[in-house]
Amino acid sequence: MANNINSLKKTARLSGLLFFLWIVTGFYGMFFVSPKVFVSGDFVASAENILKHETLFRTSIYSALITNGIWILLVWTFYYLFRTVSERYSKLLVVSVIVQVPVAFVQGGLSIASIATLKGEIMTSLELVQRQDLAISVLKINDYCVSALVLFYGLWLFPLAILVYKSDFIPRFLGVWLIINGAVYVLLSFANTVLPEYKNIIFTYGMPAMFGELVLMLWLLIFGIRERKSIQ
Question: Nearest Cα to 47, choosing from 141, 143, 130, 124?
Fold first, then answer.
């Protein structure tokens, strides 16, 4: 039994580390690269910035691929951490992540294609302005894919929240927080698709709930799991 507890502790800390890396690599493109490249409402300036900061833009593409690779490893460690809590919900957690990953790799390919289009390496028969419009349109498709995936960003948190809540080695309040976190993502997905005029309102008021993933990451990274009589 002691060996099992030690194994769970190591798995929890590894999950926390992978969670941290997943968040950092995901935030890189979102909060560091995008503001330097994309100009809201100005497609021409955005296209010019992509060429001006091509290497930086390419690092964001690769970072997104790394993020999804880490996500696979993260959910796999979650499976081993929580499978004794519920095998069914642990499998559901894995599936809810795996179905999203292929879309991210398609997005990476489209982003690289947009660079090639702007540089005239493909679509050579088009004028510069036409290539710019096409490249930005491809990137906008990527944005629409992200909007669609927001639903799954929420759905994967539901089985994770249930597992956290049912476990006796992670505080239950984190499970409740994750449920609310997932619900906010689902509402954002609905607003993005059906009521876009409300998405900023939902994002603003739902922001505190969206720190649930970050808090779980910090708990696993700092505290790991806490021992209870039921697992002694």
Answer: 130
From CA 65, how far away is CA 188, in angstroms rounded? 24
Q: What is the mean pLDDT of each run of 10 residues along the chain (232 residues)?
A: 74 95 94 90 85 95 95 96 95 95 90 92 86 89 86 95 95 96 95 91 94 96 74 40
DSSP-derived letter for residue 163 is H
Calculate the CA 154 to chain-centre distance: 10
pTM for the structure as a whole: 0.89
Taking phi over 0 as left and psi of -120 to 50 as alpha, with beta for the rest, 126 belongs to beta
Measure the N-to-C terminal CA separation of the chain; round to a whole number of Å. 7
Non-local CB neighbours of 97 within 8 Å, separated by 6+ positions: 71, 72, 75, 156
